[in-house]
Amino acid sequence: MKHINIFHRIAAALLCLCMLLPLAACGETKMYQKQVFAMDTVMTLTAYGNKGEAGLNAAQSVITSMDSMLDPDVETSTTYAINHAEGANVSVSGQVAKMLSTAQTVYNQSGGTLDLSLYPVIKRWGFTDGRYYVPSDDELAQDLARRAFDKMILTSFPSSGSYAVSFPAGTEITFGAVAKGCASDYAIAAMRNAGVTSGIISLGGNVQTLGLKPDGTNWTVAVQDPNNSSSYLGVISVGETAVVTSGTYQRYFTQNGKTYHHLINPETGRPINNTLTSVTIICEDGTLADCLSTALFIMGESKALNYWRTYGGFEMILVNKDNQITCTKGLMEQFTLANDSYTLRYTE
Fold first, then answer.
1. Which distant-in-sequence residues (6+ apart) come within 8 Å of 3 by Cβ?
2. For 329, which of 123, 142, 208, 258 is 20 to 30 Å away at the CA?
3. What does the alpha-carbon distance between residue 201 and residue 208 come to, in Å, rounded to a whole number?
4. Whole-model pTM above 0.85?
5. Number of folded domains in the chain?
6. Residue in 58, 7, 90, 332 with CA at minimum distance from that of residue 192
7. Are 296 and 307 in contact (CB under 8 A)?
8. How far apart are CA 313 and CA 285, in angstroms?
9. Domain stops at, among 121, 143, 166
10. Statement to judge: residues 159 and 194 lie in one domain
11. Between 118 and 13, the higher pLDDT residue
C-alpha cells in the first residue's frame, strides 16, 4: 500500500517499543523481535520463549499476505476484485469475511458511522496516495452517491467453508478501518499455533497481546497523547486483549491554514468535527476493536458512551479537545494517568 505520514507511524511504533523494552529482562526467557512494514505502518512483533522465532515468522507471513490481499491498487488483490466486480459475486477468504461481517454489524449498530464503501471519498481527499486535495461539495456528492455498504450481500457456504460477497455496480470499498485489527487477530493466532505463549504486536495505533508477560504479570500498553505523538497520556495494564486507538493526529494535512484529518463523516464526506481527539478501544477481538475505534470516534462522546452502555463487550478511553479523558468503569483498576495536562473521570 502507498506510504504516507511515515513519521507518525514510526513515532507510534517507537513509543510502543519503548514501553516494551523493559520486558526483555524478564527472567531468562529469550525475547525475539522483528519489524515489518505493511499496511502503510511500521509494525513491531515480539515473542518470548524457544518458539519465538518461529512464531514471529508465522505472524509476519500472515501480515504480508493480508497486505497484498487487501491492497486496492494490486490487480490480483481481493479488494481490487470486489471494486471491479460490477455487481457480481466475488469469492473471499475467511479473513475478509470476518472483516466484512464485523464491519456490517458495527455499521448497523452505529447508524452507519463505519462505512467501508467510503473509498471514493477517501481517494478524493488524497488520503490513499498523499496527493491531498480539498473537494468541492459537488465532487463529494458524486462520491457519496456511490455508498452502498448497506447493500452488501455476504454469503457463507458451510459445506466448503468458503464465502462470497457482492455489492452494487460502481461500489468501491476499503478495509483501511479494519485491516490492522484483523491482521493482529490472525497474527496472534499464528504465533499461538507456532507454540508461543507470550507475545505482543504493535501495528501503529493497534496493539494486541498473547497471554501474559513471561513473568506472569500484565502487559503495560501506552495510550498516545493526541497533542504530542511522541509522548503518551497514560498506560493500561492488560492481559490477553487488543488495544486500538483512532485519532485526528494519525493522518492529516494542512491547507490554507486549516487542518483536515482522515476520519470522515459518512454523511457529509468531510472530516468529522466533534469534541474528540482520540478514541481507544480495549477488546479481546482486534477486528471489532478496530471497527469500533473509528465508528465511535465519528459518533462523538455522548453517542459513543450510549453505544457502550447499549452493547458492551469492550472498554473505552475517550479524549476530547479540552484535554478531558473519559474512561469506562471497567478500566478503574487498569488505567493510570501519566500526564498532568489531562483530567480524568470514569463513567458508568
1. 40, 130
2. 208
3. 5
4. yes
5. 2
6. 58
7. yes
8. 10
9. 166
10. no
11. 118
